[in-house]
Design a protein that fits this description.
The protein is of the alpha+beta class. The protein is built from four helices and six strands; from the N terminus they run αβββααβββα. The strands form two sheets. A three-stranded mixed sheet has the order 1-3-2. Strands 5-4-6 form a three-stranded antiparallel sheet, with no helix packed on it. It is elongated.
């Protein structure tokens, strides 16, 4: 399926389920891995993950499109379009859309612990996945100064291995 076919599909679903036309642009975005789609409030465009269509099929992708159309139509009507809004949740249930999409295999990757912030005074250790500036923080236990240390070599040696698997 290409972007033109997706555009027609979104327009057709909009008319059938919402009774209102979709007047903006719908496209596939291959970079979307942890989300099924997204709605842009400034441009009113919709992006859909092609990986959801490939792996989970057209039924799941249709539920994702309906979800994004709920954002679209409620936002344009000036109503509650966010996930936490009751109007949004009610419209999701009415059209048969999902609040969350199915996870893609291998979509979420966890970074290994590479650093520790260690307290000079009490020795408390705070594991970190990314390098941080210890001057910006103090110990939560004793308010002492922290220093940044690299994690044990066995944790750091797994990093290149994980990068190759992706």
């Amino acid at each position: 399926m290409n972007n033109l076919e997706l555009q027609h599909w979104v327009e057709e679903l909009s008319l059938r389920w919402f009774g209102r036309p979709f007047l903006h642009k719908a496209t596939f975005n291959g970079r979307l891995r942890t989300t099924g789609g997204r709605y842009f409030t400034k441009s009113h465009h919709i992006e859909i993950s092609p990986h959801q269509l490939e792996i989970n099929g057209s039924e799941e992708t249709e539920r994702i499109i309906k979800h994004e159309l709920c954002h679209y139509h409620l936002h344009l009507l000036g109503r509650g379009y966010r996930h936490r809004d009751a109007e949004f949740k009610a419209l999701l249930a009415q059209v048969g859309a999902t609040l969350y999409c199915q996870a893609l295999p291998g979509a979420r990757r966890s970074l290994p612990v590479r650093y520790h912030l260690v307290c000079h005074a009490c020795g408390m250790s705070y594991p970190r996945k990314r390098k941080t500036d210890p001057r910006k923080y103090v110990c939560g236990r004793c308010r002492g100064k922290l220093k940044l240390e690299e994690a044990a070599p066995e944790a750091a040696s797994r990093l290149p291995e994980m990068a190759v698997q992706n």
